[in-house]
Amino acid sequence: MNTSAQGLRVLVTAGAAGIGRAIARTFAVHGARVHICDVDQAALETSGLERPDISRSLADVSRVDQVDQLFADVKRELGGLDVLINNAGIAGPTAKVEDIQPADWERCIAVDLNGMFYCTRLAMPLLKANGHERGGSIVNLSSVAGRLGFGMRTPYAAAKWGVVGFTKSLAIEAGPDGIRVNCIQPGDVDGERISRVIESKAAAFGVSFEQQKQTLLDTISLRTFVSAQDIANMALFLATDAGKHISGQALSVCGDKQRAI
Asked: pTM to 2 decimals?
């Protein structure tokens, strides 16, 4: 199985920490030239110290002007693009729909869905410039919230269902140009982010952190969280020759999560 990324030019949004960091490093290790963006200046600086071979930009993908500058940086640093990893996203509020403030709803949609569009619209001309034979790949990060209902997480779930529709529609549109478009639906990924979600839900339900964590694990057939590296491995598979005939798919990496809580 050929998962070599040798020579690929890759942009990973929100690539300085968490899943994005794992994806960026995995592509770099497999031979790609990688550029990342992030809103966290400190995380970007740390990334630069640890992996000076990965170029970087400070950018909020929900801001059109900052995405414009990001792609100017990509053209300068990479000279083109073969792979776009739309990873940027936020968890959004945890509350009943009537208690969610419009600004919190709008911010979640802006980062998780609008930002994906802003990046993709500028990536498409670069990917098309490669010609049909070389083509390109777009990997969008959705979530199991994009196939399950997530009570008290309506902004996040709405955005992640939107990612699936965006992915499947774009795959039809981009296929004739040799561009593959897929999305990954991570389950509960071990780390700080899921801890924050557990804390929020534990507070909302009036239970302890450990009780809420066990309740969450009980919704997963394998009774385990997945890792950021699991998601990175899937992204590499989809963007390289190993996945060259896969497009328009929403692929779950979740340990078989059965339901949301």
From this structure: 0.95
